[in-house]
Amino acid sequence: MSGLRIGIEWSIVFVLMVLAFIRKKRIRLLPSLFLTVFITFFALLSPTGKVLTTISSFKITQEALFFGLHKSAVLVGMVFISQTIVSYKIRLPGTIGAFVAQVFSYFEQLTEKRLSFHKHSVIEQIDEALLSLWQI
């Protein structure tokens, strides 16, 4: 994997982020940043390739770093493209198309709601959110 490929992938992620922002007018960057940091960190746990630096006994290698950045670009890009596509009213023919449209509709309604989780009632709150959509 090369630095050029990683740069192109992250450029595509940036374009998808801009499209999601244009479509939804609001995006959350912090979860994407956390995904990138943690995926890259866990990729660094299996060091392969040229050693870039060593922190104590922890080796940061080029191949593992590129691999983590690649995986996080794919995942973050998929999140942004799903935010962009789900906003559109998709019409597919047949019963499968109606089912897919209904799933996207439920997903969009779920992501519009702001849930605040409390310590002992997480499952109950998720159930209430799902049941409120099912009764519509």
Question: Secondary-structure blueprint of this entry?
Answer:
Elements: H1 3-24, H2 30-44, E1 51-55, E2 58-61, H3 62-87, H4 94-112, H5 122-134
Antiparallel strand pairs: 1-2
Helix pairs in contact: 1-3, 2-3
* Radius of gyration, CA atoms, in whole angstroms: 19 Å
Largest sheet: 2 strands, antiparallel
Output the number of helix runs: 5
Q: How many DSSP-defined strands?
A: 2
Quaternary structure state of the chains depicted: single chain
Tell me what the structure shows.
- The chain is mainly α and 136 residues long.
- 70% of the residues lie in helices and 7% in strands.
- It has 5 helices and 2 strands; from the N terminus they run H-H-E-E-H-H-H.
- It has a two-stranded antiparallel sheet.
- Strand 1 and strand 2 (58-61) form a beta hairpin.
- The longest helix has 26 residues, at 62-87.
- The model has no long low-confidence stretch (mean pLDDT 82).
